[in-house]
Amino acid sequence: MEFAELIKTPRVDGVVLRRPFLPTVEGTLCLTGHHLILSSRQDNTEELWLLHANIDAIEKRFVGSLGTIIVKCKDLRVIQLDIPGMEECLNIASSIEVLSTLDSVSLMYPLFYRPMFQVIEDGWKSFLPEDAFKDLESMTEEWRLSDVNKDYSVCSSYPPLVAVPKDVDDDTLRKAAAFRHGGRFPVLSYYHKKNGMVMMRSGQPLTGTNGRRCKEDEKLINATLRAGKRGYIIDTRTVSVAQQAKARGGGFESEANYPQWRRIHKAIERSSILQESLIKLVEACNDQSHSMDRWLSKLEASNWQTHVKEILTTACLAAQCIDREGASVLVHGTEGTDSTLQVTSLAQIILDPACRTIQGFQALVEREWLQAGHPFQQRCSQSAYSNSKPRCEAPVFLLFLDCVWQILRQFPCSFQFSQHFLVLLFEHTYASQFGTFMGNSASERSKLNLSQKTVSLWSWVNRPQEVERLSNPLYEANCLVIWPSVAPQSLLLWEGVFLRWKRSSRCLDEAYDEMVHIIQYNKELQNKVNNLRRQLAQLETEEPLLQTP
Amino acid sequence: MEHIRTPKVEQVRLLDRFSNKSASGTLHLTATHLIFVESNADAAQEIWILHHHIGSVEKLSLTTSGCPLVIQCRNFRVVHFVVQRERDCHDIYSSLLRLLRPVSYEELYAFSYNPKQNEQQREEGWQLIDLGAEFERMGVPCDQWQLTDVNRNYKICETYPRDLYVPITASKPIIVGSSKFRSKGRFPVLTYFYQEKKAAVCRCSQPLSGFSARCLEDESMLQAISKANHNSRFVYVMDTRPKLNAMANRAAGKGYENEDNYSNIRFQFVGIENIHVMRTSLQKLLEVVGTRSLSVNDYLLGLESSGWLRHVKAVLDAAIFLTKAVTVEGASVLVHCSDGWDRTAQVCSLGALLMDPYYRTINGFMVLIEKDWISFGHKFADRCDQLDGDPKEVSPVFTQFLECVWQLTEQFPQAFEFNEWLLLQIHEHVHSCQYGNFLANNQRQREELQLKDRTHSLWAFLLSEGQNYLNPAFCHTYAETHPVLEPSTLPCHLKFWRNMYHQFDRSMHPRQSVLKNVLTLKESNRQLEDTIMKLEARLQKHGISPPTPDPQAPPKDQRTLLNHTRPHSLILAAPLSLKEAQHQEEVGEEAKKCCSDTERTVEGSSGSERKESYGDLQGTYGAKVEPAVVSLEFGVARMTC
């Protein structure tokens, strides 16, 4: 298929663009295979380059022969295009509709994108499991890297290499995999250096209604316990949801078969409910009415903040088991690719200072989301405005980012990155020129040969100028465990994402710049003082005679 | 002292409001304070509660562990003690009941409070604010407005100040006639003059119009206000009440202006609810947010049903209406409600804050409060329950004003010279009765009490530690680029003011304060600049002119300088000492395990400083061992090693 076939009208003149906070522009609208471009064809005026992939939904309106297309983007921005001529407008609209919903992976923009910047460090090679394991090896000898999944045959959503207890052989892993949802047998997620406790994650056990058991699975997770110690299994579902799962062949670990483990159920919602929540939240934020009661009740009805609280609470619980109780933890929900990852990754933010650095956070996303098989392509193919019926879409990763933002707000000096980084990740999971978030698993990415055919987002992010832009000027390395407050009064609506297009952030940005200036000026002054002191000290040792009492 | 039956009770437990933690210690009752001293020798925390701050004391029924005593303070602190013996509990309870209900002003703390200041300093404190000078700053008196002496002896209106500004054409008979036609004699007077357009903001109380009464003098008064402004042919009359309330008032012989009788007015209701609605609303809000294990949904529904943010929005919307009328249309506005001392004060002062950058400075903000609240007779004594009075007169009108200001500071982070702590500190002292400024209901009563001779001024105290109240992001040129602020009152832009209503619930606050950090850096910058000057002077003695900085030089650790700006005041202990408190928590573990020094910098100041602060509800109550069963503590932010 050629893009040209899909573009009935590639160019329209006299189109007026209206968008938040920027002056209205009149210019020429062009459609290319991947972009919607508006150019005033004058110097120094900003142009619009919008990825079709970023378009979530469009609406058409006509007044006489003047057509209007409202473009609703996945980053929650809404822009308006006034197009003279009904036919042009209809053509443009239908082209956008088709181009923004192309299913074929081979037509996706990252495969066509050529970087305009110099790739200093290839992001595809920045966070290899082998390297992560080297760090682990330096701390403990109880784990090994298994290549049991090297051809993705044991678990299609796992990477080829996973860390497992040293004493457990690959055969046991294969058998345990057969007993876990999607073949996701328990693997190492995090090693807590302070006390040697670990966090593992997996899919649900396939006990079914007649209580099937699997000795190998029991052996595998028991191998992570120290003699005489108990561990905790955190099931992200409520007891009743977990019970119901039995009827569909799933289930949970029974006390009888796992006597050394204590099971705790939490209540993180399934992904379809999360998508609905996002849609309601965005609708509430876009409500133009001036009624406070309406706003608060809509916000409440969206349940978004409740999800944030539940996820954070569960992550705190996991972290508490490890750090405070000195126990190892296994986390799972149903598939082990959504709520499980929210919990394991947030627990690491809480426990591990390394995850709060720019590099460390990338490594965390790579390890706990991309390698761990979160189906990004399915989850992020539609956002809050889409009219089509959601299939597998869910803001699972966005909720994770929201939770990180909440912790960042509570510990504003403990993160090396600012909220810009989180917003950037949100944008790129939904529409991107980079291949990082394409596909649903390591195996899909490897089949598409993305590391050769596309550029990694990390290659872009890790350039010095971008690192600088994403840095938090207040950062001071903090080796402590940071426990966030999960009281409703402590949780805020993430304005940087949800109210971003409602009001210009100029006032806040300028205040932020001022703060950055104060911090930088402080550094300059300190340098200057040190220089003067040194100079003076030199002079005074050279000319001691000049010193007068 | 005669009211104190038991000055000291030992083995009292203090329960945390939101977690299961507790601390044990000794409770002391003094003439002015209730003090709790934790017995844990290492991290002994002290909580000092001023009697005036106590809003209510409640003795709950006896439990196995003792007799619970719950104290709710007006600064939103809630403490829960458990006293072992019921008799002790009862003694404290009944002493407090007496102590927190003073019957005469002379019993208030301000009359015994004695900071180490000499008489001259005290007097200077009272001279800091001069309202005459403030009207001069606005450009009054001028060719259209003059100072009148009709109220020199508080004869025309005893709740107004002596000095009042009226239109040139308003003669004495007009003033007198108008005042007789207005509730409590509060006739229209000038409160703010917008020099650029010669537009005036005037305030008064409702007219005694009933269903049909009219008053020619009052009509002439409004005519005079209108004539004083050549920019506009009419005056806006803003009745800040809901229309229904105003109509109901007519039955009592009061009411609102009839547009037919006043030739040149545009009448407008803006619908702010009365003091009773506001009181109930805040009570509901506090009930909701005080619930343990509150769910997000109950929190949001509670916010909604309390109506508090709806009221805050209504007040702000009214102020925006006023501002637009004055700055855009150049029209004069007359603002009133019923008596003209609650909603009118809110709207006039917020409007002035929006249109005049001066009021967004520390000095200007004090002047604004002094003018629109203190001198125009907002009934602080009644509204803040200073003496044992009518509970129906109590209302958080001033708190609501401070909250509106806070909402503005959140939207315009560079527009205000002061930060949130100033607002919290003012709120603290409006209720502490430690300074004379807010005592009594009006200027006349204050003069009778000779407050200026017998008490100290809060403004002097605040200015003496002005460093702590600076907004580091404040931009001096902002006043020129944004003389008039245009805030958004979209519901999603108004927020719950956690730092006010949960001031003392440290577990809910961010663990690290950006504000404190940046303030500290700014202070450090000032000191470094000094140091550089001195060093350069010394170098010059050696005949060397100032060198260019060497960017390669490794930064030396200057952190010792950074902890300098530590406020010593009580309220600041709340947002600031979060870190300290937690520092205390960490010390033990840090000692064992080696944490970086950077961490200490983050944590803030030393323990000795802490004792000066009147304390705050510290989290780590003793060395309670972690429970064997994992129970996630509700809503507790902290850091551990």
How would you describe this structure in keywords?
heterodimer; A: 549 residues; alpha+beta; 7-stranded antiparallel β-sheet; 5-stranded mixed β-sheet; 20 helices; B: 641 residues; 24 helices; 40% helix; cell membrane (chain A)
- Pair of chains with the largest interface and how many residues each contributes: A-B, 82 and 85 residues
* Count of individual beta strands of chain A: 15
Number of distinct helices of chain A: 20
Structural class of chain B: alpha+beta
User: Considering DSSP H and I runs of 4 or more, what fraction of the residues of chain A is helical?
Assistant: 40-55%
Which geometry of chain A do the CA atoms define?
Answer: globular
Distance between the termini of chain B: 46 Å
- The share of residues in extended strands of chain A comes to 15-25%
What percentage of the residues of chain B does DSSP assign to strands (E)?
Answer: 5-15%
Strand neighbour order, sheet with most strands of chain A:
4-3-2-1-7-6-5
As residue ranges, the low-confidence spans of chain A are none
